[in-house]
Amino acid sequence: MSLDTSTIDSVAELMVRKRPTVALTGAGVSVESGIPDFRSVGGLWDRFDPAEYATISAFVSSPKKVWSMLHELGGTLDAARPNAGHEALAELERAGVVAGVITQNIDNLHQAAGSEAVVEFHGNGRWLICLDCGLRVDHATANENLDDDRIPRCSACSSILKPDVVLFGEQIPERALTSSYELASMCKVMLVAGTSATVMPAAAMPLLARRQGATLVEVNIERTELTPQVDFTLRGRWAEVLPALAEAVLSKLDRP
Ligand code: ZN
Predict the structure, then answer these.
(1) 1-35+81-122+172-256 shares its CATH topology with 38-79+123-165
(2) How do residues 244-253 score in pLDDT, each as one tens digit?
(3) 146 alpha carbon to ligand 1 midpoint, in Å?
(4) pTM, rounded to two decimals
């Protein structure tokens, strides 16, 4: 698929003129980093029924079983590296054009690429948290402390550790909600990438941004339910579109 350079140029012009831009990202941006969409065929939820493996009640009642799935997920996350799209977004943040990214992903790839203002609706799989004493540890450290059932244990109280991600049946962190509403309310351009933003609270973000007068730009390889509501559509792969967009933005910033 060839990129629509004229639309990229129009969006870049807008991002330079109307600041800041905020990005809302989902599973699609991580596919090119080797993390299949959990909901896709062959994805995590195709092999592990989330009702059985990804609810907080399943975790509490059968941690050994749920951890068998989590170890596989951990291996996928460990092997993943940020792609050119993540890097381009981080570059736009350093350039002062992007104010932050709100993500539905738990893979830490935005941070690994250098983005600093990252709001995570569903937590971050890189971290584990003790359900009893609240200790938060890097998953690499925790994996050195597995019990006979291969369940990581808290080094402070020996209780079971849970990934610091939002399982089904758990609340979205209050802090993430507050920060995302702030970003969506203040942005002048919102890039919605790799997600159709149909699930709450992500679904509220483009609507809120638009109500405050922001321009909506969709970056996706395919048409989504959001497409009819956006002002611009950049059809293509995230890892191709974002670098092209960043290059166009940066060249306009350099212009005297
Ligand atoms: Zn503990």
Answers:
(1) no
(2) 999 999 999 9
(3) 14
(4) 0.94
- pLDDT at 141 exceeding the cut of 90: no
Model confidence pLDDT, tens digit, residues 86-136: 999 999 999 999 999 999 999 999 999 999 999 999 999 999 999 999 999
- Please give the distance, rounded to the nearest whole angstrom, from the Cα atom of residue 131 to the centre of ligand 1: 7
| Per-residue pLDDT reduced to its tens digit, 57-66 | 999 999 999 9
Listed residues: CB within 5 A of ion ligand 1 = 130, 132-133, 135, 154, 156-157, 159
Question: What's the gap in Å between 136 CA and the centre of ligand 1?
Answer: 9
Q: What secondary structure does DSSP assign to 191-215, as a single string?
A: EEES----STTTTHHHHHHHHTTPE
**Helix, strand, coil share (%) of the chain residues, nearest 5:** 45, 20, 40
| CATH pick for 1-35+81-122+172-256 out of 3.30.70.2740, 3.40.50.1220, 3.40.50.300, 3.40.470.10 | 3.40.50.1220
Dig out the tokens for 117 from the structure.
Answer: 């203002």
Is 122 annotated as catalytic?
yes
Task: Give the start-to-end residue ranges of the domains of the chain.
Answer: 1-35+81-122+172-256, 38-79+123-165
Q: Any idea which architecture 38-79+123-165 has in CATH?
A: 2-Layer Sandwich (3.30)
At 8 the three-state DSSP class reads: helix
Q: Is the C-alpha dihedral spanning 233, 237, 242, 243 positive or negative? A: negative
Ligand 1 centre and the CA of 123: distance in Å?
Answer: 19
Ligand 1 centroid – CA 127 distance (Å): 14
**Catalytic: which of 86, 110, 122, 139?**
122
